[in-house]
Fold this sequence. Notes:
By secondary structure, the protein is an alpha/beta fold. Helix content is 33%, strand content 20%. Strands 3-2-1-4-5-6 form a 6-stranded parallel beta sheet.
Amino acid sequence: MAGLSRTVRILKNDKLPVASPRNRRNLPKKTAKERLQEFWNIFDKDDEVLIVISADPDSLAGGMAVKRLLRYRVKSVTIGYLNEIRRLSNLSMLELLKIPAERMKVLKTDKFNKYLIVDSQPLHNPGFEEISYSAVIDHHPVTQGWQATYVDIRPEYGATASMMVEYLRAAEIKPSVALATALFYAIKVDTQNFEKKCQLADAISFRYLFNIANQNLVRKIELSELRKSELNYFKTAFSEMKISKNRLYAHVGRVRTPDVLVIIADFFKRVHEVSWVFVSGIHGEKLVVIFRCDGYKKNAGILAAKTFGQIGAAGGHRESARAEVPLKNLPKHDQDFNTKTLRRLTGRHL
């Protein structure tokens, strides 16, 4: 994505300053209508907008909502996703809801003049860093070292989709069945059916969508999760699994997609008397580690950052987190990674 670096655009009327994760904390709390108007003020009718995401249910739904909010206000809006979508439930969501999203590598990204990032932040993925964003809308913990004209980050929310429902309602836009279904499913996934810590606002958005969303489609998406061939990864995980001090460790080896590691970790999280789950695998030239815990006096995001933050991208929420580390960044004695290595590295900070 060379050549995408751009100067962050300041509004002509200078009413909105360039926002950053650092100075946004000092801004007074805004109403939904005030946020919406500030967001709309960034755009002109001749803008060609690219919504940049790492495709998962929350980002896909959030991208759809932003596209709807900008309809008739800009020249064009495109949703572009950086990652390759391999998880069956995400593919089913795309197909069943007919989400108009395109792979970033096939887009001529330099034709756009405004860039947004939804359900992520510029430093969450190296592929995001080369772009200067007009807006960042997210619910993950705040990162530093970047700026955008408009920033709305609410880590207390369970899903970015909940935030987007508030934007739509402030705009007096009733979502279509497809959009409502996407938002509804995203809130279910990111709050883990409200088992994770979230806000009353998440429940209000969820309830608002309940009678609009197609529940049959939601169920169909939820049931699309595993390919038959991926059951072999479970076989490996069971054979490699080690449990010690209520902590479960499993290194699966090379995987076709990191999403299977998430599915395995979520499965192992159900085991009685297991309070921590660590599942790792190799995808391409990266080590991927999935962290899960019960969130009681624990914080998976902090542990991930402490363990791998110095050599890769790592972070997340109290109950769930992820680390992606280029194999070349690992010490030589750790590059032949296995379950014992996983246990040793994560155990340093427990």
